[in-house]
Q: What sequence folds into this?
């Protein structure tokens, strides 16, 4: 608790404004521009879904969730990737609580190499996913820990995820609009069958 408090104090004490014409050493910044807005207007309704490769499988419907404190894999993807209990590390903490007040006990952790992008835009990181058994329109969720490890910045307004690849190349992954459409159709179909 004390180290987290100190981290908050450090973050709150920094207020650095960098003039746009300054010459800063290092990689170029990950920035989002108005010209990149989908349809010329900021998005607020569509979630940011991307694709990634894990366990030699191309996985779509990867939700980018900056509000999540961990990276989550749903059991449907766990089974699709043909992973088993042998791949799991134990989860010994308390149950997770959802927005609706329900709670669930995770199966455990599975560590996987996850690759974003292709060819020169490719970047691979190891992500410890918490495996959750609950229904979801998404295959997995990349939260703050995975985004930090990727060194990524995301913008829901722009429906893009950006990160640095080799040689300082800035990679810009566009949101998977087709996957979002399928998720919305699936959610509406499930909702109309309940009514």
A:
């Amino acid at each position: 608790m004390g180290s987290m408090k100190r981290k908050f104090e450090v973050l709150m004490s920094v207020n650095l404004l960098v003039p746009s014409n300054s010459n800063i050493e290092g990689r170029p910044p990950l920035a989002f521009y108005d010209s990149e807005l989908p349809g010329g207007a900021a998005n607020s309704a569509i979630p940011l879904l991307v694709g990634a490769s894990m366990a030699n499988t191309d996985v779509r419907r990867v939700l980018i969730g900056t509000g999540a404190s961990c990276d989550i894999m749903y059991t449907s993807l766990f089974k699709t990737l043909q992973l088993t209990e042998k791949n799991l590390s134990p989860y010994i903490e308390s149950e997770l609580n959802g927005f609706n007040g329900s709670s669930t006990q995770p199966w455990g952790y599975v560590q996987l190499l996850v690759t974003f992008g292709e060819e020169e835009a490719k970047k691979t990181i190891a992500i410890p996913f918490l495996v959750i058994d609950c229904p979801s329109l998404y295959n997995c969720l990349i939260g703050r820990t995975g985004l930090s490890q990727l060194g990524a910045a995301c913008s829901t307004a722009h429906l893009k995820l950006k990160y640095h690849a080799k040689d300082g190349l800035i990679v810009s992954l566009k949101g998977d609009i087709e996957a979002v459409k399928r998720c919305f159709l699936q959610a509406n179909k499930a909702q109309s069958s309940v009514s």
Notes: Helices lie at 2-13, 75-80, 144-150, 177-194. The CA atoms of residues 129 and 146 lie 9 Å apart.
